[in-house]
Amino acid sequence: MTAAFADPQTQIWIIAPTALVSQIKPLLQANNQLDRTQQIVRSPEALLSDFQYLITPPHPLPASIAIPTTLPSYPGSNADTNDIPSQLNIPPSLQHSLHFATCSSSPSCSALDTTRARPRHSTSETRNPLSRAVLAWLDALPPDVLAAFPPATRARVEGSSPAYSVYGSLLVLNAGLMGREPWVGLILGERREEGGGQRSGSYWSGRKGRGKEEDSRREDLWRRVCEGLRVSRVGINGAIPLHVEQTPNGTDGGGETGEAQGKDNVQRKPLAFKPLYGDFGQVESAGSEAFGRAYWVSVKQNGIEQVFAPLYTMFSRGNIKEKQRIAGWEDLKTRRQGGVSVVDLYAGIGYFAFSYARAGVDRVLCWELNEWSVEGFRRGAVRNGWSVRVVGQGKGLWMAEGKDVGLGDERFVMFNETNERALERLKEAGSRFPPVTHVNCGYLPSSEPVWEDAVQMLDPRCEGWVHAHENVAVGDIDRRTEELVILFTALANPKRWERNPARQA
After folding, report:
1. How far, in Å, CA of 425 to CA of 212, rounded?
2. How far apart are CA 206 and CA 219, in angstroms?
3. Shortest CA distance to 43 belongs to which of 17, 21, 12, 65?
4. What is the pLDDT of residues 174-210, one digit of tens each?
5. For the chain, what percent of residues have pLDDT higher than 90?
6. How distant, in Å, are the alpha carbons of 396, 398, 425, 428 from that of 401?
7. First to last CA, the chain
8. Which residues contact 351 (CB under 8 A, 6 or more apart)?
9. What are the distances in angstroms from CA 189 to CA 139, 180, 200, 212, 397?
10. d(CA 442, CA 356)
């Protein structure tokens, strides 16, 4: 899937009541859909005059704020307005309070919320390392080349604070930069025609196409950026698409085959990620040889290393506080005789599973579909000094040549298969694992499809916890809490537990 980006006039803005902004922004941030290159709009006058609403808003408009997203609104891309909330992963409980619009003119007026905007600095005082590196590159260009740039390019770079993240040797630019000059031109080497998303030739020469000289200058730009930020590769992020779109060669855009067009992107593949500089390797199907050739990144959070391949797996830096809470949970550190187990039904590269291990859990049983995430998980476990056993899809775990081979003392057992088999696997295991006391269901916007199985995985002889992840509006927390108490009480009814005789040992 190719990432699409827009300028303020052709991107979707969320018009949200002031009280809901604290809920909407984290949702967008979690999916890399908040345009950090632009500021929110607070002015009531601007909300009425500068925005073109996709559905007529109520009159009078309640006190609201406009939040920029990275979702494009090119003609035909949002033909079904009702589909916009799902593309932005907005839960149904919030949708009735929101409106969606495009901006009729670039919101660079006094309507912007400038209370947190960075002050502008002279070239030598520019604090943003990315801007400093670009300015150094601009200063090194021949005068005739620099003269071909759009007016005020240098001033715009000097006065901006482009958003980015650094993960080890990788610099990831925020997707919102692709909708804003001069960054869209600097990144793509192309510029847009005034008032639209059409490209009009090379950014710095006006000619169509780029020659070797221009490619060399772009190479020098990224080399300076890498030196300035001490990285070796540069890419730009895009929102994780909700659905997989097949390419003409029959793959899903991530090197894998067999996915039907329009299928849910349950593996959370970063299909919109775009490499810009450095060797990321070729996109290819998973396998030991491909794993060896791929580019891997290591990130440390809360003192725990996580490893991922940016072409194949997403990295979520959120939920840091929840990860800290789990890693320091005294209940998990107090081991019962014989130990305890935790089940992670959406393990990814170890976002939560590693925190359970840090808390002292004896055995963490994990399920993950994405083979690249499984390999990242394995590498991360090894880096943290934990042992791991990977079980392939449909592979037996305990039997070899008709004999029970048992398990070693691995801290993690990772099943590279759908979590729909998790309950069956645990029943097959009998008493081989310590009692399961915690089941982690870390998937958004909701992990509800696995809750019934999660409850049945808990050992009835122990106090158990299900960590159920879901997007819930602040105003709906009390109501949803009551619903979940009723739901989980029903699921935990002992009559529903089909006890395996092997677990009674």
Report:
1. 57
2. 19
3. 65
4. 877 766 677 777 776 655 444 444 444 445 444 444 5
5. 20
6. 11, 10, 19, 17
7. 51
8. 306, 316, 319, 323, 442
9. 17, 13, 11, 13, 53
10. 13
**124 vs 84, more confident:** 84
- What's the whole-number mean pLDDT along residues 333-358? 85
Pairing state between β 412-415 and 11-17: unpaired
Q: Is pLDDT at 384 greater than 90 in this prediction?
A: yes
The residue whose two tokens read 């847009």 is 192
Whether 262 and 245 have beta carbons less than 8 Å apart is answered as: yes
Are 184 and 153 spatial neighbours (Cβ–Cβ below 8 Å)?
A: no
Strand partners for 243: 264
Instruction: Report which of 406, 319, 398, 401 is spatially closest to residue 355, judged by C-alpha positions.
Output: 319
- Confidence (pTM): 0.67
Going by the DSSP 8-state scheme, the letter that residue 222 receives in this structure is H
Mean pLDDT of 432-452: 86
pLDDT in tens, 2-24: 333 334 446 788 988 888 888 88
Q: pLDDT at position 295, please? A: 93
Q: How many residues does the chain have?
A: 505
Structure tokens given for 376:
């990242």
Residue among 296, 483, 505 at smallest CA distance from 468: 483
- Report cis status (omega within 30 of 0) of the bond before 182: yes
φ, ψ of residue 294 in degrees (nearest 5): -75, 160
Half-sphere exposure of 232 (CA within 13 A, CB side): 7
What per-residue confidence (pLDDT) applies to 492?
Answer: 84
